[in-house]
Design brief:
Elements: H1 2-13, E1 33-37, H2 41-47, E2 53-57, H3 60-68, E3 74-78, H4 84-90, E4 92-97, E5 102-109, H5 113-125, H6 128-137, E6 155-159, E7 168-169, E8 175-176, H7 178-189, E9 194-198, H8 201-209, E10 215-221, H9 224-227, E11 230-232, E12 237-239, E13 241-246, H10 256-264, H11 270-302, H12 307-322, H13 325-336, H14 344-370, H15 373-381, H16 386-416, H17 428-439, H18 443-470
Parallel strand pairs: 1-2, 1-3, 6-9, 6-10
Antiparallel strand pairs: 3-13, 4-13, 5-10, 5-11, 5-12, 7-8
């Protein structure tokens, strides 16, 4: 948690003096550091140049921040990735609009010819150009299409960008942008509503290949490499690269109060944090509950007289200990339960419960073993049944010894839920990412999330300790 707080401060300490870089052509990048997102066309292009240093990040937002923090000189991406309003607010400008052009399209699961043909027909006949003109050039707004049946199966899409004007979460948590308007109109033409999730491109492609979504959007270039994994619609837009740099003439600096308002009040962004907090609490509570019940079973298996049960418990514990939780979460979501129709939240609860059960089972077993055998023998000699001896004598002592460790595992599970955003669950951490990708302010969202996690961890310790004292 402390690292999250210190990161923006450490980055701020490395901030270089703002300067405006003049770029008239691609050749002017020689000797400069270029920031871009991992795996895209621009990273591959500039990584091949020996005279350019590439600063690759996990998202466009982080790449923009790299320039603002002085870690890179120029941010290179699609020309539409930064609106004029955002450039003015961030103290940046487009130094050059590249001459290259790229066809932009929507990605679909390979072999889904029916949906691909319907989308192609829609792009060819619908007023897609007017939608794009509205978002890019400020042209007249196109009325939202009607005709969707709320009871129909939704068209599932994943938006890989949360930046205006491509696709972003606006006031009231509603998705807006040119990609969203196009797909919303397309869904209405099919008579179905739109189900929108936000994921990074790599996770979105996996979801597309496993049938968990229908369409992936986000100003995607059509490349031969991507065609090996997905199918594309016909192009709906032609994009050029944009070279964004700091604007020395910009003097717009927000106060802490203004930054707080921008991150919480503007577009009701506080609702994202509330929803994320509730999602985190839900996953944590049910994972602990289910994991505790499974942990009792693991403990019983470890203490069983049957050798095969003890071996099975040992193998289970070794498997859980030997695989990262994130990897297990991805396997459960994209492989094990890919066709089960389970929600991402339910898969997260099951995954964390399985991990928690292994640790809880060890804690229960160790705590019971720490109670001297003479306690059990004394209870039996007094005429107590084995069950009465365990519940009345052994269990209270084991509880006092094991509960501190159990509390630690509960807190660890709470913090571990921060990875559920990889399977499109909008938890507390993902909510802060969504806000950060709109405001380009790392400190305020991370500060708020850090405080909330700290308070939740304190409450878990406090409540379970109160339970211990009552025992």
């Amino acid at each position: 948690m402390a690292g999250i707080l210190l990161l923006p401060l450490l980055q701020g300490c490395s901030r270089k003096e703002a300067k405006t870089i003049v770029i008239n052509s691609d050749d002017d990048l020689a000797g400069l550091t270029v920031s871009c997102s991992n795996g895209n066309y621009y990273e591959r292009k500039y990584s091949a140049r020996e005279d350019v240093k590439v600063f690759a990040t996990n998202s466009e937002t982080d790449a923009i921040q790299a320039v603002r923090q002085g870690l890179a000189d120029v941010f290179v991406s699609d020309e539409v990735m930064l609106s004029q309003a955002d450039m003015e607010r961030l103290g940046m400008k487009m130094a050059l609009r590249g001459e290259e052009s790229f066809d932009v399209a929507f990605a679909l699961r390979k072999g889904n010819r029916d949906l691909q043909q319907k989308l192609n027909d829609f792009i060819s006949t619908a007023p897609v150009g007017k939608i794009i003109d509205h978002w890019i050039n400020g042209g007249p707004d196109v009325a939202e299409a009607a005709g969707a049946d709320p009871g129909a199966a939704p068209l599932r899409i994943i938006a890989c960008v949360n930046m205006e004007p491509v696709s972003y979460i606006g006031d009231g948590g509603k998705w807006l942008g040119m990609d969203i308007d196009i797909l919303r109109s397309f869904a209405a033409s099919l008579g179905c509503p739109l189900d929108i999730q936000y994921q990074d491109l790599s996770s979105a492609i996996i979801a597309l290949q496993t049938g968990l979504t229908d369409v992936v959007s986000g100003c995607l270039f059509i490349t031969d490499e991507r065609k090996q994994s997905v199918d594309f619609s016909i192009p709906y837009y032609q994009c050029h690269p944009g070279y964004f740099v700091l604007d020395k003439a910009a003097t717009n600096h927000l106060s802490f109060g203004e930054r707080l308002k921008m991150n919480l009040v503007t577009e009701s962004r506080w609702k994202l944090l509330v929803d994320g907090l509730l999602e985190t609490l839900k996953i944590t509570f049910f994972a602990i509950l289910l994991g505790t019940l499974l942990g009792i079973g693991v403990c019983a298996a470890k203490r069983s007289r049957k050798g095969w049960l003890r071996k099975a418990a040992a193998v289970y514990g070794s498997f859980i200990d030997g695989i990262p939780t994130l990897v297990l979460l991805l396997i459960m979501f994209y492989v094990v339960f890919a066709g089960a129709g389970f929600s991402a939240s339910l898969v997260a609860i099951i995954t964390f419960a399985l991990c928690f059960a292994a640790s809880a089972g060890n804690i229960f077993d160790t705590s019971i073993s720490s109670v001297p055998k003479g306690q059990t023998e004394a209870g039996l000699s007094l005429g107590f049944t084995p069950l009465k001896t365990f519940t009345g004598i052994v269990f209270p002592q084991a509880l006092r010894k094991g509960l501190p460790l159990f509390i630690g595992e509960c807190v660890a599970l709470l913090k571990g839920t921060s990875i559920v955003g990889y399977i499109a669950v909008q938890d507390l951490t993902r909510a802060s990412d969504l806000i950060r990708s709109r405001t380009f302010d790392a400190f305020i969202p991370l500060l708020i999330v850090t405080v909330l996690y700290f308070v939740l961890a304190w409450l878990i310790r406090r409540l379970l300790n109160l339970f211990l004292l009552k025992k």
